[in-house]
Amino acid sequence: MTTSEPDCLFCKIVAGGVPAEIVREGERVLAFRDINPQAPTHVLVIPREHYPDAASAARAGTGLLDEIAAEAHAIAEAEDIASTGYRLVFNTGSGAGQTVFHLHCHLLGGRGMEWPPG
């Protein structure tokens, strides 16, 4: 884990070098709307520090994944989707669809979610 990676898109968003529609900010996390939404509500919740994926954050043992989940729930409440249900997705690795290698949680809601997801 490093504080930031110079070529990382999400590190650039955290630093303010790339614009994003910010939904919520915390000391350790930042949330913004996905530029290619897959649901009426599609928000990415990311740590300010650079972790390449969920597994690396879990190994660090700092409680960051708990904080990301709590922030996602607070956003779901603010977006009025908490009561109807929402999905949290962490893609880990290119085979799972991860394209930006900075830990991020997709908060999806506002429509029915099918199973299996894809």
How would you sum up this structure, described in words?
- The structure is a single chain.
- With 118 residues, the chain is an alpha+beta fold.
- It has a domain at 9-90: HIT family, subunit A (2-Layer Sandwich).
- The chain is 25% helix and 21% strand.
- The chain contains 3 helices and 5 strands; from the N terminus they run αβββααββ.
- Strands 1-2-3-5-4 form a 5-stranded antiparallel β-sheet, covered by helices on one side.
- A hairpin with a 7-residue loop joins strand 2 (29-33) and strand 3 (41-47).
- The radius of gyration is 14 Å and the shape is globular.
- The mean pLDDT is 95.
CATH topology (fold) name of the domain at 9-90: HIT family, subunit A
Q: According to CATH, what is the class of the domain at 9-90?
A: Alpha Beta
- Which percent range fits the helix content? 10-25%
Low-confidence stretches: none
Q: Helical element count?
A: 3
Kindly state the mean pLDDT as a whole number?
Answer: 95
| CATH homologous superfamily heading of the domain at 9-90 | HIT-like
Keywords: Hydrolase
GO molecular function: hydrolase activity
Pfam families: HIT
Domain HIT: 9-118
Primary descriptors:
118 residues, alpha+beta, HIT family, subunit A, five-stranded antiparallel beta sheet, 3 helices, HIT-like protein, hydrolase activity
What's a quick, concise take on this entry?
With 118 residues, the chain is of the alpha+beta class. The protein has helices at residues 9-15, 54-60, 64-78, and strands at residues 22-25, 29-33, 41-47, 86-89, 105-109. A five-stranded antiparallel sheet has the order 1-2-3-5-4, with helices on one face.
